[in-house]
Predict the 3D structure of the following.
Amino acid sequence: MGLTKENFEIPSEHFNDFYDNPFAFQNSASGESIQQVCARTGEFYQELIKRYCYETILLTTHGFALRAMLQQVYETENKEDF
């Protein structure tokens, strides 16, 4: 069967919702809210810097999680910085 346009296309009227106002974005019922991602990645970041504070590490992730984690790196809760 494979993917078709009908089963993977993002409805155009909602495509920019996350980028335009990420803290008002409505996630799917099975997904995380932006606040949950910020909390989860923040905990991960804090554990990471405690455990590997004198080592060089490489992280890979997608933009959503990266933006959430950078709030911890730059110690900001300003929604404008997200």
Q: What stands out?
A: Residues 32-82 form one domain. The longest helix spans residues 34-51. The CA atoms of residues 3 and 9 lie 10 Å apart.
